Sequence to fold (602 residues):
Amino acid sequence: MSLLVTGSIAIDTVKTPYGVSEDCIGGSAVYFSMAASFFSPVRLVGAIGSDCPFDFDEVFAGRDVDLTGLEVRQHSKTFRWMGTYFDDMDDRKTDYIELNVLAEDPPKVPVSFKDSKFVFLANTAPKLQLQLLEQIEEPMFAAADTMDFWIEGHPDDLSMLLRKINCLIINEDEARLLANEHNLIKAGEKILDMAVGAVVIKKGESGSVVCDASGNTFILPAYPAAEVKDPTGAGDSFAGGLMGYIAQAGKTDFATLKTAVAYGTVAASFTISDFSINGLTKTTRHDINNRLAELRKLVKF
Amino acid sequence: MSLLVTGSIAIDTVKTPYGVSEDCIGGSAVYFSMAASFFSPVRLVGAIGSDCPFDFDEVFAGRDVDLTGLEVRQHSKTFRWMGTYFDDMDDRKTDYIELNVLAEDPPKVPVSFKDSKFVFLANTAPKLQLQLLEQIEEPMFAAADTMDFWIEGHPDDLSMLLRKINCLIINEDEARLLANEHNLIKAGEKILDMAVGAVVIKKGESGSVVCDASGNTFILPAYPAAEVKDPTGAGDSFAGGLMGYIAQAGKTDFATLKTAVAYGTVAASFTISDFSINGLTKTTRHDINNRLAELRKLVKF
Fold:
């Protein structure tokens, strides 16, 4: 079924111990769409400036990504991010950020996208996420990401957003901050008390935890990647694989959510194996399925 | 089958955000024996001084722990450790340490213990671990723990030990240090190249990874404990549950090792729920089995 994503499209420059990737394609909506398109048609809503050097038909060649919602603003510039990862790849610093088009009005949801059943609102101001969500007529399952800046600075907007979405997908530090609780299991429970139906907590190389309002819990380790070249986009690829699988399944029960988290884990593992979206570009659905089977075997006892 | 453990017996004083536990029983051999005795008879080899206030018959009441190898040295003092855990329980500092009897000759393995088939050598000098192991006639499966001090200061002894044991059980920082490799999957492979048959890497609240020389890998998250009162002894309880189950099964194939790691995980989860060995004292084999079933369900997809 139809899956819509709103998020950033970026010109990234990334330094890792494996090298430098200059002015490469990035952004939450791009990583999400790449990963989700293994499973389901994707409708992308995002904005770029006239400086954007990427040919999106080529970027998404062979994938069912509808670019009707891609706004090219002639008098704007594209969002830029520059970051450095250190030796252990656990931490990164932002060297430089230029919001550009992200600081303007958000892109509109095209009329042809308004019937989308599955929606992912990548990280941005909760108020904008709400405005975007309101443009969708009857969403069946909406998920969102957020970050420390909104948790600390815009708690009321975020609280409103949580009441409107079905699933929050955040990392462990954000979960702890949002819940004001170090223990992740308790943090998950506290976030569920904020009236969101399910919460997925991403723990990087330690995997993820999912819990829902019916008291279900699922824990999955990360895929044990021996080569990590560039962690950029891992979280958005995770969300893409997760939401893509749910949209494909057309179901939102906990068993589906568990398998979706596993597919998200697998998608992220391909992303981090190379710079930018190269890890996903060279991957096939067959590779995805094989790695899912491998992951299932790795955790079985 | 018979399971022998050599390790420390300690008088611990532990501070955590939940309170202070003064002069309580601790030590690797104690936590190990408590956890292992859910599964198998245990033979404890350790030394204490005349100041030791604990009644070991009472400590191990109802458990099959053979204390023939417990040496009480009239002119010595018992090992003491004092430590503090901080808010997030992830880090601890040692406030005070008194080696006492641990700085003397190691205890002898009693004649009646020499036919032990399963052996766990808790953390101490690799040279002593080797001497202890040599006293066992025909061990079927020997495992050992070690720490940064021996990895950095006594690499040759440790290298010799690795060739003599079947399994190394260490935490992630130790694995990275030993292998000189940050990526844990690669670190595991490098440690296997040191001629040990299997390596279990403990990642605390992120679970554990096991790999063996036949190319098998298993990943298990930690049990999602909502209450962590005192992490002391978690690693030794993990090893106890693991080795106890292997001794009970009498098999050392990878499927057995996987289930053993799961039992170790469960044993550790009970240990950290209370101070000292109290979490284990009040636990039954029935509780252990229930939690294993729960853990199995939590990771299944």
Notes: DSSP finds eleven helices and 13 strands in chain B. The radius of gyration of chain B is 18 Å. The CA atoms of residues 223 and 301 of chain B lie 16 Å apart.
